[in-house]
Amino acid sequence: MAEKKHTLNPDSWVKLHADYLFNYTISRVNNHDLAKDLVQETFFSGLKSKDNFQGLASERTWLIAILKRKIIDHYRKINSAKGQAEVKMNFYADGDREGEWIEERVPSNWSNNTDKSIENEELNTVLEQCIDNLPEKYGMVFRMKTIQQFETEEICKELEITSSNLWVIIHRARTQLRKCMEDNWFKN
């Protein structure tokens, strides 16, 4: 039985895939305008390279592969623009609490589902603000590793850092996020 060959229909990309690609992107870059730009760049790159499409993957899967590369390129560009210098930060160390992470601190008793939904939205808003307040490189590495779940090797290769550097950045980002969440969420 012959394998089905997929085809491209660029005239329907916006209608069929724009919302999906945008939602995929916004969760990875957390910037509305940047997400729209990356989706547009993806469509443009897809048009330029449509002759290379072999039909082995679906149209959406192929576009997502292009988009992933665009997102990685965006983070690489940010990293190189800032240079390779590390920002030295003070550690927030607090005895027995050192190393505790946000999920461990979320209240476990909820009064009802509505309250839980509101609390989760508020928690997410505060968490996003705390991530946005991290040094740019820390936020970038934290998002790629923890939220987007890129592999360590892929992040290190794309950002040209060592794995030990990555884990130092992750540790420092988590430490700063914990402090920020304690100051802006848990004390409320």
TrEMBL record:
Per the record, the domain of life is Bacteria
Q: Is Transcription regulation one of the keywords?
A: yes
Q: Where is the RNA polymerase sigma-70 region domain?
A: 14-77
Entry keywords, A to Z: DNA-binding, Sigma factor, Transcription, Transcription regulation
Q: Where is the RNA polymerase sigma factor 70 region 4 type domain?
A: 127-177
Matching CDD domains, A to Z? Sigma70_r4
Which InterPro entries does UniProt cross-reference here? Answer: RNA_pol_sigma-70-like (IPR039425), RNA_pol_sigma-70_dom (IPR014284), RNA_pol_sigma70_r2 (IPR007627), RNA_pol_sigma70_r4_t2 (IPR013249), RNA_pol_sigma_r2 (IPR013325), RNA_pol_sigma_r3/r4-like (IPR013324), WH-like_DNA-bd_sf (IPR036388)
Family to which this protein belongs: Belongs to the sigma-70 factor family. ECF subfamily.
Name of the protein in its database record = Sigma-70 family RNA polymerase sigma factor
Q: Which organism is it from?
A: Lutibacter holmesii
Source species taxonomy? Bacteria, Pseudomonadati, Bacteroidota, Flavobacteriia, Flavobacteriales
